[in-house]
Amino acid sequence: MVKLMVSFGHPVSAAEFENYYENKHMPIALKIPGVKTMEQTKLVGTPDGGKSSKYRTTSIYFDSVDELKKQMGSPEGQATVKDIPNFATGGVDVNIGEVLN
User: Fold this and answer.
1) Which of 34, 96, 37 shows the shortest CA–CA distance to 71?
2) pLDDT tens digits for 16-43?
3) pTM value?
């Protein structure tokens, strides 16, 4: 199993980010075919009480890298990617990881 890991930087406005992410972006993302599960995390800080380097992460799980590439290339996957600049004012990092456990 593999996952697409999307890490969002701290937005200009957390309230605007949350509203858009929940009400506009996620309904688009939930249409991506072939997704095994999707995990969303809102980062609250570091172990020493500091501010996290990122604001939110989303992990989208697929059976294989080939399946991930196929589905992210689908119209639904492309619509999700194209929507990111509409709300991710703090930047975004995207990585693919192999799940080991």
Assistant:
1) 34
2) 999 999 999 999 999 999 999 999 999 9
3) 0.92
